[in-house]
Amino acid sequence: MTCFTNLWLSHHHGFGINTNILETNLINIILLVALIVYAAKNALLNSIDQRREQILKALNTLDDNVVESQLTFIRSNKQLQQINLILSQLQKENTANKLSALKRKYHKLSVDVDNLCDLSVQLIERNSSEGIKSVERYLFYFAIGKVLTKFVKLTPKEKQQILETVIMNFGGGN
């Protein structure tokens, strides 16, 4: 700083106005900050105390809310366990109902296939060998289309049970 003072004094041969913008702005900002801190110290301390009280009240409220939330969570868990028990009972009943419905659908499909087979036998006996081939293709596609149309509408479990039953009927099972 003494170098600066000496340099400044040597150029101007005495005291004068410092025209260096960077130096004067730095000094002005430091003085302004010091003045604001000194003048607003009490107001800032009061504001900080009020804010501290608000935060403490909010923390107390949050603690109460946490306790209440934990109690609600415990009650909700008990209700969830009851709901899971009821759901498992309903699933057992639903499985039995679906199995009987699946058996009815399988029986109806097997009757439809039998009827189509009987119809195809009658048509084959009436037509010549070339006509027989045409009818066989038609009946095959018709039967497959009918079966697939009904099969597509089934749920994955129903489809699996039908396939297992068909495999068992054709001797593929143990």
Written overview of the protein:
By secondary structure, the chain is an all-alpha fold. It has two domains: 1-37, no CATH class; 40-169, no CATH class. It contains five helices and no strands. The chain has helices spanning 2-12, 21-39, 41-126, 129-152, 156-169.
Task: Itemize the secondary structure elements and their pairings.
Elements: H1 2-12, H2 21-39, H3 41-126, H4 129-152, H5 156-169
Helix pairs in contact: 3-4
How far apart are the termini? 102 Å
Q: What's the average pLDDT? A: 81
Radius of gyration: 46 Å
* Shape field: elongated
How many helices does DSSP assign? 5
Percent range for β-strand residues: under 5%
**What is the structural class?**
mainly alpha
> Major beta sheet, specifics?
none
- How much helix is in the residues? over 70%
Low-confidence stretches: 5-10
- Annotation, overall tally of beta strands: 0
Q: Spell out the helices and strands N to C.
A: HHHHH
When the domains are counted, the total is 2
List keywords for this structure.
mainly alpha, elongated, 174 residues
Summarize the structure.
With 174 residues, this protein is mainly alpha-helical. It is built from 5 helices and no strands. Helix 3 packs antiparallel against helix 4.
